[in-house]
Amino acid sequence: MIKPLLKMILLNVILMLCFQIKEIFSCQPRVSHRQQLYCSSNYVFQVQAEGVDNKGDDLFERNYRVSVIDSYKGRIGTDFNGTITGNGYFMSCGPQILDKGFKYLIYAYNLHGSIRIREFYNMTDIKKTDIDLFRKYDCFCQIVTKKNGVILRNLRQGNTCSSPIPSGTTCSYRKSYCRRNKQGACEWALHSQCG
Fold first, then answer.
1. Count of domains observed in the chain
2. Which residues of 114-143 are buried (b: 16+ CB within 10 A; e: fewer)?
3. Which of 58, 83, 126, 138 has its Cα between 20 and 30 A from that of 162?
4. Spans of the chain, pLDDT less than 70
5. What does the DSSP 8-state code read for residue 165?
6. Which strand (E) or helix (H) includes residue 14?
7. What CATH number corresponds to the domain at position 57?
8. Which residues have a Cβ under 8 Å from the Cβ of 193 and sit 6 or more positions away?
9. Residue 156: inside a domain, yes or no?
């Protein structure tokens, strides 16, 4: 009588743990304003992908040889001689694949001495305005969003941009940034007009 009860309890505990692990490791897309990406990254740089160093052994991470073209944040110069690490095939959000010969804008962070990709964009999708905005970003100012990327309203803190970006267009979202005004409070500004 006790053994079947213990088996049932053990089975329930195992099933519960499996569902908890799924929740912990499940892929939840992060919707971030590019200023949030820039400020939360240790490095922002442009590369040309030269190839994968660990092909065939890239289930959990992929190590890319890259040539650095330009660096916008962090101390990575064009003389960088190393690899950057992206997610492999078994990661919950899938692999981060950089195709050989293509140029990418990389947002990265440092983890135990390795440079890991946070997000990346093909340079064909990057405009000059996107790069110009790096000089305007004020990382003192925080952009507060919900998980789905909706910018929260009515926060009364001086160091946050939380009211909607002026105009609801994709253009204004991409060309806007959060900065301090003359009084030191953070507010939205538009880098250039949409048109």
1. 2
2. ebbbbbbbebeeeeeebeebeeebbeebbb
3. 126
4. 1-2, 5, 9, 11-31, 55-56, 58, 145-158, 162-172, 194-195
5. P
6. helix 2-25
7. 2.40.50.120
8. none
9. yes
Contacts 24+ apart (CB under 8 A), 2-7: none
Query: In the numeric block, which tokens belong to residue 131?
Result: 């790069």
> What is the domain extent for residue 107?
41-125
Do the beta carbons of residue 45 and residue 71 sit within 8 Å? Answer: yes
Which pLDDT value is given to residue 23?
A: 42
Distance CA 43, CA 54 (A): 23
The C-alpha atoms of residue 61 and residue 63 are separated, in whole angstroms, by 7
Beta bridge partners of 190: 176
